[in-house]
Amino acid sequence: MIPVTKPFLPPREEYDRYLDGIWQRNWLTNNGPLVNELELSLKERLGVPHLLFVGNGTIALQLAIKALDLKGEIITTPFSYVATTSSIVWEGCTPVFVDILPDTMCINADLIEAAITPKTSAILATHVYGIPCEVQKIEEIAKKHHLKVIYDAAHAFGVKVDGKSIFEYGDISTCSFHATKIFHTIEGGGVFTQDPQLLKRISFLRNFGHHGPDNFNGVGINGKNSEFHAAMGLSVLPYMKEIQSRKKEQASFYGEQLRDLSVSFPNTKEVEDYNHAYFPILFQEEKGLITSMKALENNGISSRRYFYPGLNSLDYTTGYCPVSDDIASRVLCLPLYHDLTREEQRMVCRILLRVQNH
Ligand SMILES: *Cc1c(COP(=O)(O)O)cnc(C)c1O
Question: Are 224 and 280 members of one domain?
Answer without folding.
Answer: no
